[in-house]
UniProtKB/TrEMBL annotation:
PANTHER family: DNA REPAIR PROTEIN XRCC1, DNA-REPAIR PROTEIN XRCC1
InterPro entries: BRCT_dom, BRCT_dom_sf
Signal peptide positions (record): none
Source organism: Lanius ludovicianus (Loggerhead shrike)
Gene: Xrcc1_0
Protein name: XRCC1 protein
GO cellular component: nucleus
BRCT domain: residues covered: 1-79
SUPFAM superfamilies tied to this protein: BRCT domain
Cited Pfam families: PTCB-BRCT
Length: 79
């Protein structure tokens, strides 16, 4: 049920984050769409982050993907 968008990352990190999330079963979108659920962002105070918040999305950092990968499952998004 995770449809994620990445913001503020350059390759190769961007590709690594995307690959890790997709391997866990997430779907990827290059831009925020109506079915997006999570914004993985390097910087939480950007126009893209504000839009995601406004549309009900969850903002997470890259550590969330790495932690999910380490545990092999989707982890809560809270602190």
């Amino acid at each position: 049920g995770v449809v994620l968008v990445l913001s503020g990352f350059e390759n190769p990190l961007r590709s690594q984050l995307r690959a890790a999330a997709v391997a866990l079963g997430a779907e990827y979108r290059p831009d925020w769409t109506s079915d997006s659920t999570h914004l993985v962002c390097a910087f939480p105070r950007t126009p893209k982050a504000a839009r995601a918040r406004q549309l009900g999305g969850l903002l997470v950092g890259p550590a969330w993907i790495w932690d999910c990968q380490k545990m092999g499952r989707r982890l809560p998004c809270g602190p």
